[in-house]
Every structure is written in C-alpha cells, then in structure tokens.
Here is the input.
Amino acid sequence: MIAVDWGTSSLRVYRLDDDGHVSETRQSADGILSVSDGAFAQTLENAAGDWMSAGTAPIVMSGMIGSRQGWQEAAYVTCPAGLPEIASAMCRVQWKSPAQSAPPVQSESTAQETRHAWIAPGLSCLGATGVNDVMRGEEVQILGILHELGDGEHRICLPGTHSKWAGVRDRRITSFSTYMTGEVFAVLKQHSILGRTMADGDFDESAFVDGVTRAADSGGLLHHLFGVRAEALAGHIHDKQSASYLSGILIGHELRAATPGIERFHLVGAGELTRLYALGASILKLPTVVHESDAVTRGLFALAQNLTGNA
Amino acid sequence: MIAVDWGTSSLRVYRLDDDGHVSETRQSADGILSVSDGAFAQTLENAAGDWMSAGTAPIVMSGMIGSRQGWQEAAYVTCPAGLPEIASAMCRVQWKSPAQSAPPVQSESTAQETRHAWIAPGLSCLGATGVNDVMRGEEVQILGILHELGDGEHRICLPGTHSKWAGVRDRRITSFSTYMTGEVFAVLKQHSILGRTMADGDFDESAFVDGVTRAADSGGLLHHLFGVRAEALAGHIHDKQSASYLSGILIGHELRAATPGIERFHLVGAGELTRLYALGASILKLPTVVHESDAVTRGLFALAQNLTGNA
Here is the structure.
C-alpha cells in the first residue's frame, strides 16, 4: 500500500509491504498550502506516481488533505470512535493517471486510466461544558498505537504546533483536548516584546527546567510570560537562554493542565519537541512511555486493512 | 507645574495649577520610539515650550522616558516603596532652551537659558520564588490614588498592554505582578491561526461573557485558546464574535489568577479596556472600585510637591 501523511506544510509518502513495514519513504514541502489550483492529484502523482504505476495499492491519506482547504473535505467523526468508525467514514477521491507526463509506460498497468485514494476523516469531540474540539491527522497516529496499548484506559499526548491529549478506553478514542502551546511559543518569540531579549542559541536545559518549575508557581501563565522579559532585564537569564525558558514555561503549563489525576501518559512522536515533553514530564515526576515515530504509517496500514467493506 | 506622561508610543503633557487641577492638556504620537537621535529636549519643547517660557515649573515626567531607551535611565526603586522613596529617586535632566526656534520672547523668562525636568524611576519587585518584575509609569498612577485609598491593605489593577496588579499597605506599594494579557491578545489576533476566523466587528458582550466563563473550566489557558478556533469551525461562534470571545478568555484567566483570596479590588484607568475588566470582574462576582483616569496627573503632582528636598 501507499501511506500518505499530507499536512499543511509537508507531504510524506511511504511505500509499505504486505506486513505494514515501510520499504521506501519520500518527503517534500508540498503541503496543502503550497498546492495551487487544486492540483492535488498531480502533486501526488509527482510524489508517488511510479509506485502507483507499479501497482502498489491501496492509497490511504491522512492530515489536512481532508480539510476544507484540502483535496476533499472528509467530515469529522464524533468521539468516541475507534478503528471501525474511522475506517468507515473515509472518503474516496479519484483522478485520471497522467499518461502524458509519465515516462514511457511498459508495465502491465498501462490500461489503468482511473486511480483512487482514501482520505481519513478527522475527529471532533464535545467537552463537558459544550466546547468543541477537533483533530485531523493525529487520530491516525493514535490508531497506530492502539494495538500496542491494548484494552483499558490510557492517556496519550501528541506534541506539535497544536498538541493533542487524548483519552483512550478499550481501543476507542473517548475524548481529547488541543493545546496551542507550540503556536503560542512561535508567535510570542517572533512577534511579542519577549522576542526582543532573545538571541539564537542552542537549547539551554537549565533555563528550560527553570521554566517548567516556574509553571507551578502562583500567578498564572499570563504573568509567568512577562517574567521572561523581567528576568532578562534583571540579568537573571541571558538572551540565549530566553527561548528555552519560555518553552519550559509553556510546556510546563500544558503538562500541568493536561494531567490532573494522571499517573502516567503515552508520548507519540519523534524529534526535539517530543524530547522536550519527556524532559518536562520527568521534572514534574510524571512517568511517560515514548512510542516510536512510525505511528502514522501503522495507523494508515490499519485503515487500509479495514477498507474491504467499502473499497 | 507641567506633568508629562511619556510612553513608548505617545506623549501627553498637562499644565497643572497650584492645586493640582489640570488646566490644559496636549497629546501627540511622539512616544519615545518615534524620537530620533535622542532629540527628547526638542520634542518636549515642541510640546510645552510655551508653558515653560511662561514660567510654569517644575516639570515632572513618568513612563518609558526613564527607561534605557528613553531620555535618561532612572534606575528602578525596589518594593516596598511609597511616595518618599520614589520622589527621592527621581533623576534630573537639563537642556538649553531653544531661543532660536522660539517666538520673540517678551516675558521675564528671557534670561533663562537652562531648563530642567525630573524623571520618576520605575519600580522593581522580587516575587516569593525569586522571579523579578518591573513597572515604569504605573507606579505614578498608583501614587495618584494612595490618598484616596488611605491606610490599610488594598489590591490595585491597572489594565493595559501589560496590565499590573499591585498590593498596597499603608500607602506603600509592597509588591506587584505583570500580566501580558493585552499583548498576548494582540499577537494571537494578528499572527496566529485564531485570527483567520476573526472578522472585524463591534464588541460582542455575549461572546465576551462566554470567554470569561470558559476561563473557569478545566484544561488551562493553552487549551481554551484553541477553543476559539474549534468553536468557530463548529459554527458555535461567528467570525465577528471571535475576538470578543478570545478577549473574555484572556481577561478571565488574568482576573482568576490575580485575585485568589481577594474580596475586591481597585481598577485604575479609563476607556474600553477598563470597562472590560470591570465587566469581567462582575461576571466573576468580584466587587471593584473604579478610579478616575486622572491618576497619573495626581501622582505627578504629588511627586512635584515632594521635590523640595532635592530640587
């Protein structure tokens, strides 16, 4: 199969074998925002047309490609939802294979004129006080670790620009909350007065730890944020430490707000940001289980295996 | 006397009579950021040179004019501090009166070549956990209402881009905290994804009330912020209501974080923002006393009266 993780700013395609193992990966900056005139089919053909011509099917996609700004809107499925509900709500797109732009075709797939792919829906969730929340893409990552989690209750964190915290019970996503932490960090650094006392520098673990610890003080986040400036003016933190201190304050606030009564949680993701969440959790003495970064391909593989009914 | 409120983006000069009443007011956009080549004396002469030539003295200034980016840095005074400590830490700037650019001089002040003015210092405060905080300008507004407050303990809120909450005991400022609420609102509206579902519109009281109420829910500010987008996607709030909803969430979080165990507080300021804080406080059933907007001229007048010692 071909697994496609198609977000706002990037496109990742994976070729999976029959056991769900990734045999080949390609990545580009062709996120949905950079696709003009709705040329999604052509963009996908450019990324993986040779795999399709070689007969690799089915194609299953997740992420913002299913949003109103994407290829086709795949309506949100309402929580609680597990693999069956999400698989049966996928929507199908089809297009003509671009014979003219392809290299001379010599394989047996010459006759194939129409190609199609599946887009996973997002999830929506109504909180206890009636406030809505949505995710699109992360639900597939969660599907990817459901087997590993097994039955019972679990809490899952997916760090990101908009990080997601989901509750899972017996292999179904029961509810979730989004935290704007990553985007708030970026806009404060780039556009607020806090950026004026920030210099580029390597991650400063000591400043990050101070920030996470600060998040436990009274006064609240809006007050703690100003401390990034006041501490710089007082010479308590250096310009090269300020960004790490701010990051610690924000992630500390998120971790504290998202884990009341929680004894441990699962972290899904890879790279620097996930490492920061794991570090923050260790400072707060919250045990974490970090899952490998192939959750999205495992989730898309699980969806592909559940396609039989509506393919 | 001449009272000067000189901030980052605006300059306000007031002519006060011997009883401290404002007889004339002028305002311009000549904030310290728009003054080039350190031409502060010339800018002040342009704003109030005729008052000075007419013999109105002394001149007392407050605000960012005393910062490192201003005319001369007036070092922070440490809390606790009252009128005597702040008055005695004022610093003096002097300059030559610009005879060439002035109209033909006919008053008795012809001989006066050198003019001088006083700059009020800012305040700094070390919180319980050793985190620093600073204010510059608001301390003079607090001085302006100290007489009205009288002895005893009081809590004061000064709404603004960086709003200040100060504790006062027996006419001395004992501690304070800054909240970045106003700036966070502005950068999220202008630079984050939340701005994409916001349309210009009048203030929407119902959405603001929903935001203040939302701030009491579990999940924390970083989660509640994302709700501005999710609620818009769900059609629960209209694009014209989004900004008011966001404003309510932020002010609600500030009010809740800044008033634990507080039965009432004093609001100092005028205009729309102060009205929003009063509305937010009423939703949270926090009684407020709103003080008139002339706190800054009353504070500068009090400082002028305490100049005798070091003038």
Q: What stands out?
A: The two ends of chain A are 13 Å apart (CA to CA). The interface with chain B takes residues 124, 127-129, 131-134, 162, 177-181, 183-184, 187-188, 190-193, 214, 217-223, 225-227, 230-231, 233-234, 236, 250, 253-254, 256-258, 260 of chain A (CB under 8 Å).
